Amino acid sequence: MYDYFKSLSKEITESQKINRKILRHIINSFKGKTLDVGCGELMTSLGLKKKDYVGIDFIPSKDTDFVGDIHKLPFENESFDNCICNTVLEHVEDPEQVMKEIYRILKRNGKLLVSIPFLQEYHPDPEDYRRFTPVGFKEFIEKKGFKVLKIYGDSGILNVLEYLSFGGFVRRIKLGSKKNFPLGYFYIVFLGFLFFLFKFFNLLFRNLQKDDSSFITMIIVLAEKK
Hints:
CATH class of the largest domain: Alpha Beta
Oligomer: single chain
Distance between the termini: 46 Å
Low-confidence stretches: none
Helix content: 40-55%
Strand order of the largest sheet: 3-2-1-4-5-7-6
Largest sheet: 7 strands, mixed
CATH architecture of the largest domain: 3-Layer(aba) Sandwich
Structural class: alpha/beta
Shape: globular
CATH superfamily of the largest domain: Vaccinia Virus protein VP39
Number of domains: 2
Number of helices: 9
Radius of gyration: 18 Å
């Protein structure tokens, strides 16, 4: 049941729907050979199939072509036109080394899609080390030799509260019946109520939420190698 609700969150929360729409838009604009660093099952999850796509991760998945350490990519210099690094940098021990490797394998003027959570729950996979603000993330990327072309993100406090309440609902279910009995079940119902309440008002005030960029669940950046 936990896996079902975790998968459902990708299509039921407004923040996930917004961010996934942005990812599809950017990836579909890529031309040439693309490397997905820490790929997981991103392309399968987004329903995308692209020619000249290569996925690398430390564990096998549907999208993984190479299993290995992304701190030392097994590819030659300037061998890719594009690179994807989606919600990976918060999980690695040395994000600067990963970015250095990405810079190395990208061709001149190559495009980089890189994202990181902001207002999200702690989610070790296998560990969860860090968060960036939009300004801090832009500065971090530019110091690695990239030009930031655009910064994207869902926005609005109700948008964030909807996402977090559903996340709390799903994680409470993960605890199982033993830890939830008896009050935990009422807590699950309460979190579900909060989710639908926040979702209703998030949709009602959607146009106002778009102007509230101080509250975002994820930062998505499109950059270019100088």
